[in-house]
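Side project, low priority. Logging it here so it doesn't get lost.
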Amino acid sequence: VSPAPRLRALGALAVAALLSALWLLWLLSYGVAHCRLTTDRSLLASANAVVFHHRELQTRQTRLPLAERPQGQPWVWASMESPSHTRGLGRLRGVFNWVLSYRRDSDIFNSQHRDYITEKFWRNALLAGTVPVVLGPSRVTYEAFAPPDAFVHVDDFGSAHELAAFLAGMNESRYQRYFAWRDRFRVRLFGDWRERFCAICARYPHLPPGQVYQDLEGWFQA
């Protein structure tokens, strides 16, 4: 079976169709079998799950096909933006069953907001070979995603003066210790939404049936 065509930009609607009548191996390199992903909206009625990207819902570039939704079909709300950049959740009450986001308490897990670490931490700092000074999420949250010796966290200091003194007084040996993790790890950026869709395929059999986010805005803003 040939691989699925390269997915275009997420656009308005992506359908994650795990069809019982048609099982195919998609992108074997990700190790997820029996999963078909498509943007063909004509498959809405037969899809096992439908994924909506919030950016298009927020800007009203697309609409939710509520009238055409098959009874019991799970819908997935997908967003990698922080609450500060997310609007319009109030009108989505009782619509979505599962969430795909950066938060570890999301159904599908792939700042001052829970678990939100800006991509600049990876792209502009670690990948660029610098030592980031971070704030927002706790050190524990950062250490869940990055080596503990790869960054400086402001919470490790009692005041801005202590932080400044530490940075200004750091010698070369201490500075180089912030790069020791590179001998053990490498930075990998998830720039392709297909990788996140694969997480849906892997999690699908274990997602809670019948779950509904009655207050998606309240959950996401918490």
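Brief comment: The chain is about 20% helix and 10% strand.
Revisit when time allows.
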